[in-house]
Design brief:
heterodimer; A: alpha+beta; two-stranded antiparallel sheet; 11 helices; 7% strand; globular; B: alpha/beta; 10 strands; 38% helix
Chain lengths: 395, 269
C-alpha cells in the first residue's frame, strides 16, 4: 500500500494579507521616498549655489583666517588658516565638555546620594538644588554666571589676590604656570615609579587577600605613595620647577595661565545643570535595588560601607549607565551654547566667524555636524562597552 | 489528617531528629519585656522568650500578628524601642559594632531569597566569609562547596541566581547563610514564595539542618514541619505571644481560644 501524505495546513493568506509581503511593500515605498527627498535637496542646493556663483569644495580651509580667537589650546594667530580655526574650536569644545563631564559626574553622584540621606536637612537641600537647577533653562544659567556673577568681579587693578600668585578679576582667573627646568625628568620618573608601585601593591594585596584573607589598606597606602614619591624626587632633583607668576602689566595681567570668564561661566553652568539630572539618575538607580538586597547583606554581617560597595552599587550601575550616557551626550551638545557668551567653541568659531567670512555654509555645517555626531557616537560606544561589562547575566 | 500542608513533610519519612545535648548553652537568645512601635502603632507587646542553644522554635500566627517583625528584631533588621534582646551574650543596642557582632553569628533566610543577582551562586556564598570573616578565598570556596553539596546543588555553583528555580534559590540562600558558620539560624517564611512541588526540597534541607543541632527560629505555616522538628511552637496574635507549647500539646490540646480558632482555620481544608 502506498503511503499517502496530505498537507493538512490551511492555505496561506492572500498576498495583501501576508505580513511578509506587506512589510516588503511598505519598506520599498519608504526607501524610495527617502532617496527622492535626498535627491531633491541636493539638486536644489547645487542649482541655487550655481545661480548665485558660490563655489563648492573644501579649498577655503587653506585660506588665511585673519581674525583673532581669545582662547586657543593649539597654537593659533590671525595669520593662520581657516582649517586651523576648526582645530582651535574643536579643542575648546572638547576641553569644556571633558571638564563638564568630570565635574557633573562627581557633583551628580554626591547630590544623588545626599538626596537619599537619612539626614533631613541634607536630603531637602539636595532636593531644592535639583528642582531649582533642572527647571531653569540652561542658557539663562549661562547668562547668570557670565553676566551676573563673573562680570561683577573687581577690575584687574582691584583683583582678588591670593598669596600674590593667584588673581581673580572680571577678565578671568590667573594662575602661576609651572615651567619645567633641567632635571625634571627625575620627577617624571618619580611619578611613573609611584604609579607602578601602586599598581603592584594593588595586585599583591588582591592576591594576598585571596590567599590569606587579610585585607590591605590599598587606598590609603596608594594615596600616600602617589603624594610622597613625586615630592621626594622633586626635592632630590633640586626643585626643577620655575613658576611663571602672573603680574599686572598696564591694564591687565600678563604671564601665568589664564582661565577666561567665558570658559568658567560655561563650565560652571553646564556642570551644575547636568549634575542635577545625574543626581536624579543616581537616586533612581540606588532605589531600584530592592530593600531585600540591603537586608540580606546586613543579615550576613556586612557593614554599611561594604554593603554599598559590594551589593548596592554594582546593581545600581546597570540602571544608571544608559541614562547617564544620554546626559553626557546632552552636555557635549549643550556646550554649543558657548556662542551666547562668546566662548570660542567649535560652533562659535567655525560655524560662526569662519562661516560668515567664507560663506561656505554647506561645507562648514556638514563638518560641524559630523564632528558632533562622531563625538556622540564615540561616547555611546564607550558607555555601551562599559555597560556590557557591568550588566547582570540572567537566564 | 490528610491535609496538603502536613503531607509535605510526612512523605519525607523523617523522624524528629535527636538533639545533641552535650554542649548546650542555656539562653543563647534572651528576649525580655520587648516592645516595638511603628509610629503610633504598637506592633510587638511585651515579648519574653528564652531560647537555649540547639533548640528549634517554630513561630506561627495569622498574618499581621508580628511574627516576622519579631524574628527580624533578633538580628536588628528592625529596631525595638523597649526591653532587652540579648543574643549570645551581646545586647542589641544602637551600637553598630555590637549589631555587626550579632549579625555575624546569626544567619537569616528570607521569604524572597534575596540572593545577589550580580554574583554567581558560589560568589554569593563566599562574599561574606571573604569580606567579614577574612577567610582566604580557596578556603571560603571549599566551605561554600561543602554547604552547596549539603543542600544538594553543587552543580549549580557557577550559575547566576536568575538561572535557578525558586526552590534551588532558597537552598542557595540557606547555604549562603550557613557559610558564615552561624550559631543561630532565622527563617522568615522560607517556603511561602515557593511553588508547592518545591516546598519539600527546602523543608528537607531544613529538617537535615535541625538534625545537626543548629539553633533555629522559624516563622512558617508548614505545620507538618513544626510537628516533625520543633521543640516548641509559639503562637502569636496581635503582637503578643499567646501560647507556647511543645508541638504535641500545641496541636492536640491548645489552651487559648485564639489558638484553637487559628488551628481550626489552617488545618481544616
Amino acid at each position: 500500500m502506498k503511503k499517502q501524505t496530505f498537507d493538512t495546513r490551511p492555505a496561506g493568506p492572500k498576498p495583501w494579507n501576508d505580513p511578509q509581503v506587506r512589510s516588503i511593500f511598505f519598506q520599498t515605498i519608504a526607501i524610495a521616498l527617502v532617496f527622492w527627498g535626498g535627491w531633491v535637496l541636493v539638486e536644489n542646493t547645487l542649482s541655487n549655489m550655481e545661480s548665485r556663483g558660490i563655489s563648492t569644495g573644501f579649498g577655503f580651509l587653506d585660506e588665511t583666517a585673519g581674525f583673532g580667537i581669545i582662547m586657543n589650546l593649539v597654537p593659533y594667530d590671525a595669520t593662520m588658516s581657516y582649517g586651523r580655526t576648526f582645530w582651535v574650536g574643536l579643542t575648546n569644545t572638547l576641553l569644556v565638555s571633558a571638564m563638564g563631564v568630570v565635574a557633573a559626574t562627581i557633583l551628580g553622584f554626591i547630590i544623588g546620594v545626599a538626596r537619599l540621606s537619612s539626614n533631613w536637612l541634607v536630603a531637602k537641600m539636595a532636593l531644592v538644588y535639583i528642582e531649582v537647577i533642572r527647571n531653569i533653562p540652561l542658557l539663562l544659567q549661562i547668562f547668570f554666571w557670565y553676566f551676573a556673577v563673573l562680570s561683577n568681579l573687581p577690575s584687574p587693578r582691584q583683583s582678588v589676590d591670593v598669596g600674590g600668585a593667584l588673581f581673580l578679576n572680571n577678565r578671568g582667573l590667573y594662575l602661576p604656570e609651572p615651567l619645567t627646568q633641567d632635571g625634571f625628568g627625575l620627577v617624571w620618573g618619580g611619578i611613573l615609579l609611584a604609579i607602578a608601585a601602586v599598581v603592584a601593591i594593588r595586585v599583591w594585596a588582591k592576591k594576598r587577600q585571596l590567599a590569606t584573607g587579610q585585607i590591605f589598606p590599598t587606598f590609603k597606602v596608594g594615596v600616600a605613595i602617589l603624594i610622597a614619591v613625586p615630592i621626594i624626587s622633586y626635592l632630590a632633583a633640586g626643585s626643577p620647577i620655575e613658576w611663571d607668576i602672573p603680574a599686572l602689566k598696564g591694564f591687565n595681567f600678563g604671564g601665568g595661565i589664564t582661565i577666561i570668564p567665558e570658559l568658567a561661566a560655561l563650565w560652571i553652568a553646564l556642570s551644575l545643570y547636568t549634575a542635577s539630572f545625574i543626581a536624579e539618575i543616581v537616586r533612581s538607580g540606588i532605589l531600584s535595588v530592592s530593600k531585600g538586597q540591603t537586608e540580606a547583606s546586613k543579615a550576613l554581617g556586612l557593614p554599611n560601607g561594604l554593603t554599598l560597595r559590594l551589593v548596592i552599587i554594582p546593581q545600581a550601575m546597570r540602571v544608571i549607565i544608559p541614562p547617564l550616557t544620554s546626559q553626557y551626550l546632552n552636555l557635549v551638545k549643550n556646550s554649543s551654547l558657548a556662542t551666547a557668551i562668546g566662548y570660542p567653541d567649535l560652533v562659535a568659531v567655525f560655524m560662526g566667524t569662519t562661516l560668515n567670512q567664507t560663506g561656505q555654509a554647506v561645507e562648514v555645517v556638514a563638518i560641524t555636524m559630523a564632528v558632533y555626531l562622531t563625538i556622540s557616537l564615540l561616547i555611546s560606544l564607550f558607555m555601551n562597552i562599559y555597560n556590557r561589562a557591568v550588566a547582570i547575566k540572567e537566564r | 489528617m490528610g491535609n496538603s500542608m502536613t503531607d509535605q513533610t510526612q512523605t519525607s519519612e523523617m523522624q524528629t531528629p535527636p538533639r545533641d545535648q552535650s554542649d548546650q548553652k542555656p539562653g543563647i537568645i534572651r528576649v525580655e519585656g520587648m516592645h516595638k512601635w511603628y509610629g503610633d502603632f504598637h506592633v510587638l507587646r511585651d515579648l519574653n522568650l528564652t531560647v537555649d542553644q540547639g533548640e528549634r522554635i517554630v513561630i506561627c500566627g495569622p498574618s499581621g500578628s508580628g511574627k516576622s517583625t519579631f524574628i527580624r528584631c533578633i538580628n536588628r533588621l528592625e529596631e525595638h524601642q523597649q526591653g532587652k534582646i540579648i543574643v549570645d551574650d551581646v545586647e542589641l543596642t544602637d551600637d553598630v559594632r555590637q549589631i555587626d557582632t550579632v549579625r555575624r553569628e546569626v544567619g537569616m533566610v528570607f521569604q524572597h531569597f534575596n540572593l545577589f543577582p550580580h554574583l554567581t551562586v558560589l560568589e554569593n556564598c563566599c562574599l561574606s566569609p571573604i569580606w567579614v570573616r577574612k577567610t582566604p578565598r580557596k578556603e571560603a570556596e571549599a566551605t561554600a562547596m561543602e554547604y552547596l553539596e549539603r543542600v544538594k546543588i553543587p552543580d549549580q555553583a557557577n550559575k547566576f541566581p536568575g538561572q535557578l528555580s525558586g526552590g534551588q534559590q532558597q537552598r542557595v540562600a540557606i547555604a549562603r547563610a550557613l557559610c558564615m558558620k552561624p550559631k543561630i539560624m532565622l527563617f522568615d517564611e522560607p517556603t511561602s514564595a515557593l511553588d508547592p512541588e518545591m516546598i519539600k526540597e527546602v523543608l528537607d534541607v531544613m529538617i537535615e539542618l535541625a538534625g545537626s543541632g543548629m539553633t533555629m527560629l522559624c516563622v512558617t505555616h508548614e505545620m507538618g514541619f513544626a510537628k516533625t522538628v520543633a521543640d516548641r511552637v509559639i503562637f502569636m496574635d496581635g503582637g503578643e505571644i499567646v501560647e507556647e507549647a511543645p508541638p504535641h500539646d500545641f496541636f492536640t490540646n491548645p489552651q487559648e481560644a485564639r489558638t484553637q480558632k487559628f488551628l481550626k482555620q489552617i488545618l481544616a481544608h
